[in-house]
Design a protein that fits this description.
Length: 326
């Protein structure tokens, strides 16, 4: 069977797929496969190895009558038309859990870097601006003994909470359902969204991308935050109204932001966020450790191999397909 791979992946993962199948692989690692080329390649494809940056929509499915499995090298799958896939009996797999600790690490690193002006301080040295010690030079915000509010208490949220406890932080959380198990395990406190925003020194967005969470943080929500507060987002760019955030940062309505994700990716050099001095920006690298990315790639490949062989995919997004098949 034919497997289309939309990014260059490690040879060892590609070889897993080629034991019993043929592959087409787009040779760029950091540049998306052109949409028109993907449309052409899926015409005779049985499986699709994709990622969070590829648009897998209805026209893709319409062009792929043989398609049986789509597996994305990501936890999120908002870029895939799940309804269309399910209606066509196409299995969709993803890679949950495996990246939670890596993203929690990066989230806390971004929080620390933003609070303590780490990137700005490094650039200060590189630019030759450091002439000596100053009483208020590059002063940031305290992290230890502060209050963090976590929006989305899943696996990554739990990891961030564990790290925050080591910094003596008070930990608030808001979730679509209350997690009393985590309250007992981690000492976190459930809060309404508004109360969390008003009380937190750091607001960490970790909610999935859904219709309900789209632009969950907008002008009203930003107005509730402390002027000394910092907003961190390592979930999805669509969860925050970027225009409202830019305005709040420009007006110093909040103290700063650390962002690993954006409403439209990638962002370019003329993006208004880049001109601001109170943000730290990263290129969607939350899960980017060697071990984590290799495990994600292997899981993505296994999802495909299991689906093509008729076995049940462990990490499936749309289990209703199995019910449809009886």
């Amino acid at each position: 069977m034919k497997i289309v791979i939309t990014r260059r992946i490690p040879d060892s993962i590609k070889q897993m797929l080629e034991v019993n199948h043929t592959t087409y692989m787009w040779q760029e690692e950091n540049v998306p496969i052109p949409y028109e080329l993907l449309l052409e390649q899926v015409k005779d494809a049985d499986a699709l190895f994709t990622n969070v940056s590829d648009r897998i929509d209805k026209p893709i499915f319409q062009a792929a009558p043989k398609l049986k499995v789509v597996s994305t090298m990501a936890v999120g799958y908002d870029n895939i038309d799940i309804g269309e896939a399910t209606a066509r009996g196409i299995l969709v797999g993803h890679t949950p859990d495996v990246l939670s600790e890596a993203v929690a690490d990066l989230t806390f690193a971004l929080l620390l870097a933003t609070a303590r002006k780490v990137v700005e301080a490094m650039n200060y040295i590189k630019e030759g601006s450091w002439k000596g010690w100053g009483p208020m030079l590059l002063t940031g915000q305290n992290v230890y003994n502060s209050t963090v509010g976590i929006i989305g208490m899943g696996g990554i949220g739990k990891g961030v909470a564990r790290r925050a406890s080591g910094f003596g932080m008070r930990i608030l959380y808001h979730n679509r359902r209350r997690r009393e198990d985590m309250e007992q395990e981690l000492g976190v406190e459930y809060s309404s969204l508004d109360d969390l925003l008003q009380a937190s020194d750091f607001v960490v967005m970790l909610a999935p991308a859904t219709l309900e969470t789209r632009r969950m943080i907008g002008e009203r929500e930003l107005s509730l935050m402390k002027p000394t507060a910092i907003l961190i987002n390592t979930s999805r760019g669509s969860n925050i109204d970027e225009t409202a955030l830019i305005t709040a940062l420009k007006k110093r309505q909040i103290w700063g932001a650390g962002l690993d994700v954006f409403e439209v990716e990638p962002i370019h050099a003329d993006h208004p966020l880049i001109a601001l001095d109170n943000v730290v920006l990263l290129p969607h690298i939350g899960s980017a450790t060697v071990a984590t990315r290799m495990e994600m790639a292997e899981m993505t490949a296994l999802n495909i191999l299991m689906g093509l062989s008729g076995k049940k995919i462990i990490n499936i997004v749309n289990p209703d397909v199995y019910n449809m098949r009886g």
